[in-house]
Amino acid sequence: MSVTPDLMTRKVGTMGGLSPSPSPFLTPRPERRRLMDSRGVDWNRHDRDKEVNVQVLLRCRPLSDEEAKSNVQRVISCNEQKKEVFGPKSQQRSIYDQAISPIVNEVLEGFNCTVFAYGQTGTGKTYTMEGGIKNKGGDLSAEAGVIPRAVRQIFETLEAQNADYSVKVTFLELYNEDITDLLASDDTSRCPEDKQKKPISLMEDGRGCVVVRGLEEEAVYSVSEIYNLLERGSAKRRTADTLLNKHSSRSHSVFSITVHIKEATIGDEELIKCGKLNLVDLAGSENISRSGAREGRAREAGEINKSLLTLGRVINALVEHSSHIPYRDSKLTRLLRDSLGGKTKTCIIATISPSAHSLEETLSTLDYAYRAKNIRNKPEANQKMSKAVLLKDLYLELERMKDDVRAAREKNGVYVPHERFVQDEAEKKAKDEKIEQLENDLILSEKQVDSFRELYVTEQEQRLDLQSELNDCKVSLETTNKALLDLQESYRLAMETLKEKEIIISKMVSSENSLIECAKGLRNDLQYASDDISSLFTKLDHKDRLESENRNLVLTFGSDLDKSLKELHKVIIGSVSQQTQQIRSMEEQVQTNFATKFDVTQVMKSKVEKMAETYCSGVASLKELVDMLQRKASSDLNQINDVVASQATAVENFLATMVMDAEQVLNDMQKSLSEQQQILEFSTKQQEEGLKRSLIAAQVISSASMNFFNDLHNRASQVGKFIEESYNERSRQLVNFERMFKEEAAREERSALENIAAILATVSEASREILDSNKQENTRLVEEMLNMEQVSVCARKEVTEFLEKSETRYMEDTFSVAEHTTFMKNSLHHSSKRVDDSRQQWENTQSSISNLNKNNLAEIGSTVNKNISANIVAHKEFVSASQTVDEEFNTRASDTLTTINGNY
Ligand SMILES: Nc1ncnc2c1ncn2[C@@H]1O[C@H](COP(=O)(O)OP(=O)(O)OP(=O)(O)O)[C@@H](O)[C@H]1O
Questions:
Q1: What is the total count of domains within the chain?
Q2: Helix (H) or strand (E) segment spanning residue 248
Q3: Does residue 194 lie within any of the structural domains?
Q4: Domain ends where: 807, 838, 853?
Q5: pLDDT tens by residue, 743-777
Q6: Which end of the chain has less neighbouring CB within 10 Å, N or C?
Q7: What is the pTM of this model?
Q8: Which residue range forms the structural domain that includes residue 114?
Q9: pLDDT value of position 41
Q10: What gap in Å lies between CA 786 and CA 800, rounded to an integer?
Q11: Ligand 1 pocket: which of 60, 61, 80 to mutate (most atoms within 8 A of CB)
């Protein structure tokens, strides 16, 4: 094996890191890239577009002795046969051979590869990465981890290839965001504070690669040499005794192996290919309380968790293809930038514990590993460099270093020329300030971006919330609209129902009013009928009054006649006393005649009194009948009023839709009543006219009687003068006596004529006997009597004519009354019919409303019918009584006439 001395002997100065060309002498210059491009050497073009997922391995450690002793429950089981997961029985060798060895081969092919272990503290990360490095014999032990095995594979491969190569290693520790060079020399005699004064910082090389400034690269030539460096560096790692791990690593460590291999030449050009393997042992993710961390340990754990959280966020951002990947949030992610989403091939070994106590962290690790598995990298092999260019760069670097050494010797303690030192310091300071400013600006920008991103996420969540609320509002609006439509429909129906009810109520009110009006009309009709009956009774009273006046006239006539007779008697007595005894017999006869006349007069008086009694009894019966009818009518009216009043409230609640018919009926009834009123007025007028005619006739009769009696008086005066002249005082007294009797007979009218005639006959007998003695005087008396008879005949004729006229008029009046009565009957019948029609209509209306109204109307109807029938019966009784009186009156009148006629 041959190794280029320059590559193998020098330390690479202050620059080192994870990028494939962190060393100045490996940096491809522009002219070199052009050269390579012009040569068309692009060895890995076919790999550029290949994307590969991050490879994730899962390893579960066995229970520790303590856990086994305390019988901790095992919650993880692994299928050892399928070898999907490296279980507790998996050996370091098998894991390496299956998963890591291919990666190492990729490194030797010129790729950058990263293997890092991730898991809860105490799950075997350090064991997996480092393990037991070597046994006593110098060979790898079975517990040797990934790093020693990878180192051995690299050397064995390169040796097997017999290639020229150089291997350089760096070993750094990231603790509380501070980077420490674990391979730095422990010789601090010359400059004891050199290490503290030389901070290691992360810088970008302008091509996106991170360079660890100040980190020493150690060139190694054998496996054992690497093992020594590894042990020395591991020993420097900060460990602590925690509850979960007695040797818990409190920092992240990055062990990097960079391999340069000389390849076959193309012409005179020698090419160098470069590969790098980063082996990362992360600090354990832990639950601070469970890990027992206190104070400084807690802060330490917080920083560890912070780095791991940033690593998780970077993984999430890569998986979700976010535009911003927060590499810069921690030094760990800045170191691993190219390994996560970059050009590096990456393998993550996730370690878990089978213990039930670690279940929560185990699930978290599995989730972490699941997400990391989706990260896609674009592995790209490092460009190969020609040996000449590489040597030239090395020589330039060597010259620069020699200048530094020379300046240091000359200036005795100053290692660089002063100008250059000043210049470098100034440049460095300016660059540092600029870098610091840029970093601050960048941090601020990233914070702003993060805040904007959080704001954007918040806005999106709010928008989604608002969207969902809007949808809910739309749904509720639709529901509300439907409810509103339903309510509007219900409202419309309610309004229609209300309108119908209002119409029904208005019709009921109208019907009620019409019924009330009809009832009032009926009551008025009854009142009118009662008034009519009252007026009829008034007319009857008037008629009775006339009759009584006539009777009084007759009585007055009788009293006057008595008075005249008494006077005549006095005259006769005077003449008799003056006569001699010759006429004493005649006087006795005359006295006898006077007694007879008195008896006759008494009979006539009794008859007249009987007639008066008859009339009075008839009038009294009529009055009783009238009173009875009035009481009946008033009681019936009261009853009707009570019924109507009691039913008015009930009727008001049940009135319906018969307004027009009721109004029509009302109009008809009003019309009928007006007709009846007109008829009654006409009848009244007729009766008044008839009564007037009767009065005029009575006046005519009275005047005729007066004329007759005046004439008779004149005749008697003439007779008396003649007797006085012819037969002295006797003849003249006799004529006067005869004339007085005739006058008395004339006053007696119909009934008295008969007695008067008898008296006259008696008087004529006496007169003849008297006239026998004086024939001439008798002859003249007879002549005078004939004249008187002639006058009496004339008077009788006049009386007869008067009676005939009176009878005719009485018949006319009677006919008129009968006609009026018939008309009244018809009117009442018509009214009854109207009432029946009204009742029928009412019943129809009531039947549509309720049974209550029907019963009420039936009750009213029956009451009205009873009253009508009672009125009809009373009216018939009244008519019959009137007819009876009239007939009796006619009978008596005819008897009187018969008597008069018989006497004459
Ligand atoms: N697969 C395994 N087989 C046998 N022993 C193991 C295995 N994994 C871990 N161990 C043992 O478990 C203990 C803890 O392992 P290790 O220190 O590697 O854990 P860690 O994950 O690195 O912890 P921390 O994060 O605290 O550094 C060690 O004693 C180790 O020997």
A1: 2
A2: strand 248-249
A3: no
A4: 853
A5: 775 776 666 566 656 656 665 665 566 556 656 76
A6: N
A7: 0.45
A8: 52-185+200-383
A9: 33
A10: 20
A11: 61
